[in-house]
Amino acid sequence: MHMRIIGIDPGYAIMGYGILEVKGNRFIPIEYGSLTTPAKMPMEERLAILYNGLEQLIATYKPDEAAIEELFFNNNAKTALLVGQARGIALLACMRGGVKISEYTPLQIKQALVGYGRADKKQMQSMVKTMLGLREVPKPDDTADALAAAICHGHCISSRLNIFLK
């Protein structure tokens, strides 16, 4: 199997992304980082920055598929709505870029990486670092989370392929 995956951790202040090449059962990091927006900027301008940034990443790296983290329940309704808007931008950018979208809950991502749905941030970050052969944990956390989503998707695709090949 050979595929390029973009993982996205949606956020309106910081949107993490990670682009991986999957070759067999190996994950090769191609590019990762985060798109950021200024706090005082109007929301519509922040969303435009995020959309344009993702659109540029998709055009440059041409991922085949996207793994986008689903929203987890947030006690703050306003924050959940704002993150939901950023998530919508991510979905739109991928769809417009012709990238097949899969969505994963934080629990599914943790399960795929650590084998335990209640893994903490440190365990997840350590696993991302180890699985990708990186010297240090990607910063900020949103970037590591986006890479984790991409790895999760790679594992899910591999396991689906293995079922069909048997």
Structure in a nutshell:
This protein has 166 residues and is of the alpha/beta class. It has 5 helices and 5 strands.
Tell me about the biggest sheet?
Answer: 5 strands, mixed
User: What oligomeric state is this?
Assistant: single chain
Proportion of strand residues: 15-25%
Write down the Rg: 15 Å
Distance between the termini: 15 Å
- Low-confidence parts, pLDDT < 50 over ≥5 residues? 162-166
Helix content: 40-55%
Helical segment tally? 5
Structural class by sheet pairing and helices: alpha/beta
Order of helices and strands: EEEHEHEHHH
**Average pLDDT, to the nearest integer?**
92
Query: Could you give the order of strands across the largest sheet?
Result: 3-2-1-4-5
Question: Count the strands?
Answer: 5
Tell me, briefly, the overall form: globular
